[in-house]
Structures are given as structure tokens and as C-alpha cells.
Amino acid sequence: MNDTLKQLAARSNFGHMENGEVVYDHRLEKFAELIIYECMEINQQELAFNALTRVRERYEKHFGVDIE
Questions:
Q1: Which of 35-63 are b and which e, b meaning 16 or more Cβ less than 10 Å from the residue's Cβ?
Q2: Which of 9, 24, 36, 46 has the highest local Cβ count within 10 Å?
Q3: In whole angstroms, what is the distance from residue 9 CA to residue 27 CA?
Q4: The pLDDT value given to residue 42
Q5: Cα separation, 36 vs 49, whole angstroms
Q6: How far is 9 from 41, CA to CA, in rounded Å?
Q7: Is the model's pTM score more than 0.70?
Q8: Under a CB-based contact definition with an 8 Å cutoff, are residues 22 and 6 in contact?
């Protein structure tokens, strides 16, 4: 899980800080990825190809997930 997702986990109380590091249930990472993939499905239906490509690249970089 990248730093963005870890910080979101901590902010949502699904994770907690321990020794300066966010600790979370690893199932949360899969849940977050599934939400991102669902958002990409919606984007794919609504956006033109060029915009979709840019959004996909931004999600991959921001959340650290590989979207196929």
C-alpha cells in the first residue's frame, strides 16, 4: 500500500499510527484497490480515450496501483 492509501486509512480510523508508521488490516488494501478499479470502470464509460489515459496514469501514480 502506498503512502497515500496509508494516510487515508489512518484518517478514516481503519489504520492507526504505531512508531510513526501506519498499521492497518491488509484486507483494507484490497478493498481500496477495488474501489479504485470501480472508479476507473465508471471513468472508462464516461471519458474520451485521451482523458481516460491521463486519469489512469494519475490514479496509478497517486495510489500506487496498476490499472489494466
A1: ebeeebeeeeeeeeeeeeeebbeebeeeb
A2: 9
A3: 11
A4: 92
A5: 18
A6: 23
A7: no
A8: yes
